[in-house]
Design brief:
Layout: H1 2-16, E1 22-29, E2 40-43, E3 49-51, E4 57-61, E5 69-74, E6 78-83, E7 89-94, E8 98-105, H2 109-118, H3 135-146, E9 160-168, E10 174-180, H4 187-196, E11 204-206, E12 209-211, E13 213-221, E14 225-226, H5 244-253, H6 258-262, E15 268-275, E16 287-290, H7 296-306, E17 313-315, E18 318-329
Parallel strand pairs: 1-7, 8-13, 14-18
Antiparallel strand pairs: 1-4, 2-3, 2-5, 5-6, 9-10, 9-13, 11-12, 15-16, 15-18, 17-18
Helix pairs in contact: 2-3
Length: 330
C-alpha cells in the first residue's frame, strides 16, 4: 500500500512538472559588469518570481512550451523585458537608468522664493527612488540658498543653465558629480562643491536594501525677466503704464535720418528692451522687433539706450528685471 502511495505521489509530481522548465541566469551592469543584487525577475503569464543574489544569479520556472518573456525590474535600472533564452543558463546585462529631476530655476531666486515654496511640485519617480529631505521643494530651497551668484551675475546673463549628473549612493551621500555647460566661469566648480557637501538623501531601496541611483538635473541661473510685473517699470515722471513724458523725451532728442527724411518715411519702430533692477537699460538687450529701415531702426535703438534711468519694475516688493516693448513714432 505504501509503495502505491509513493508511486502515485511520484506520478502526480511528474505530471505537475510536465512541460516545466527551470532556467538560471546572471544579471550584471552593462557598464561595470558588476553583478546586480535584488533584481526582481518574473515571467510573463506565469505566477513565479525570483530575486538575484549578491552574485547576480537567479533561478526561475518558465512554464510550458508557450513563448514568454523574462521581465527584470530594479529601482535603479527600471524595467527590462527580454525574450526567453533558448539555453537553461544564460547571462544578461542591464543598463542603469539616469532619472531626470524637474529643473531648478534659481533666476532671481530670492524675489520669488515664496511663490516657489508654496507650489506643489510633483514628478514621477519609482516609489522606492532616492529622495531629498523636503522633496523637490526642499531641493530648490537648498540650492537657492547655497548657490550665491549675485556678485557674479551681470545684466547680460539672462538665460543660462548647467546640467548636473550625480549618483545618490546606497548610504545616501552624493557622488560622481559632473557639471556640463559651464557658461559662467567658476559656476561649475561652485555647484559641484555644493553637491558634494549636500546633506544625505534617503537612498533608493530595492527589496528592502539601499542601492545606488543615478540622476540628472538642469539648473537655471541668471536674471529672471518679467514681461508683466505687479508694478510695471515707468519712465521718470510717468505713472506705470503711461508714456507721456517718454514721448516728449523722444520728440526732443530724436534725430531724423537723412535717408528717411529724403524718402519721407513715416511710421513706428517697435523696440524691445530690458530694464535692470536699478531701472537702467541693459545695453545688449535692446532690439527692434518691427522696423522701418532707412536708419530709423538704429535711431530708435539709440534713443532707448540713451534714455535716463526708469523707475524699476517691482514684484512682491522687490525690484526686478522687466522686458518692455514700445513703439517709437517717426
Amino acid at each position: 500500500m505504501i509503495k502505491k502511495i509513493i508511486l502515485f505521489a511520484f506520478i502526480l509530481v511528474s505530471f505537475q512538472n510536465y512541460g516545466q522548465r527551470k532556467i538560471s541566469g546572471r544579471l550584471t551592469d552593462s557598464k561595470t559588469s558588476q553583478p546586480i543584487k535584488n533584481v526582481h525577475v518574473t515571467v510573463t503569464g506565469s505566477p513565479g518570481e525570483a530575486f538575484t543574489n549578491q552574485f547576480g544569479f537567479f533561478e526561475i520556472a518558465v512554464g510550458n512550451k508557450v513563448a514568454k518573456k523574462l521581465v527584470a525590474s530594479h529601482v535603479a535600472y527600471g524595467v527590462s523585458e527580454m525574450d526567453m533564452p533558448d539555453q537553461d543558463k544564460f547571462m544578461a546585462k542591464l543598463r542603469r537608468l539616469t532619472f531626470k529631476i524637474p529643473e531648478v530655476d534659481l533666476r532671481s531666486f530670492h524675489e520669488h522664493v515664496q511663490k516657489k515654496n508654496s507650489e506643489s511640485v510633483q514628478f514621477s519617480l519609482p516609489s522606492e527612488s532616492a529622495s531629498f529631505n523636503g522633496g523637490q521643494e526642499g531641493l530648490i530651497k537648498y540650492l537657492g540658498e547655497k548657490i550665491q551668484l549675485h556678485n557674479q551675475i551681470k545684466d547680460d546673463i539672462i538665460d543660462s543653465n548647467v546640467e548636473v549628473s550625480f549618483t545618490v549612493a546606497s548610504e545616501g551621500s552624493v557622488t560622481h558629480v559632473v557639471v556640463r555647460g559651464d557658461t559662467l566661469p567658476g559656476i561649475g566648480k561652485i555647484i559641484k562643491s555644493i553637491f558634494f557637501a549636500m546633506p544625505k538623501w534617503q537612498p533608493a531601496m530595492q527589496q528592502g536594501e539601499p542601492c545606488d541611483q543615478d540622476f540628472i538635473l538642469k539648473i537655471f541661473y541668471g536674471n529672471l525677466i518679467y514681461s508683466v510685473a505687479q508694478q510695471p517699470a515707468a519712465f521718470p515722471g510717468d505713472k506705470p503704464g503711461e508714456l507721456k513724458l517718454f514721448y516728449k523725451y523722444v520728440e526732443k532728442n530724436a534725430v531724423y535720418p537723412k535717408e528717411a527724411k529724403a524718402k519721407k518715411i513715416k511710421g513706428s519702430v517697435f523696440v524691445e528692451f530690458v530694464l535692470n533692477k536699478s531701472g537702467e537699460v541693459v545695453s545688449n538687450q535692446v532690439k527692434v522687433v518691427k522696423g522701418l529701415g532707412y536708419g530709423l531702426d538704429d535711431e530708435a535703438i539709440r534713443l532707448i539706450k540713451k534714455s535716463p534711468n526708469w523707475t524699476p519694475a517691482m514684484q512682491n516688493g522687490n525690484p526686478v528685471y522687466q522686458s518692455v516693448v514700445i513703439p517709437i513714432k517717426f
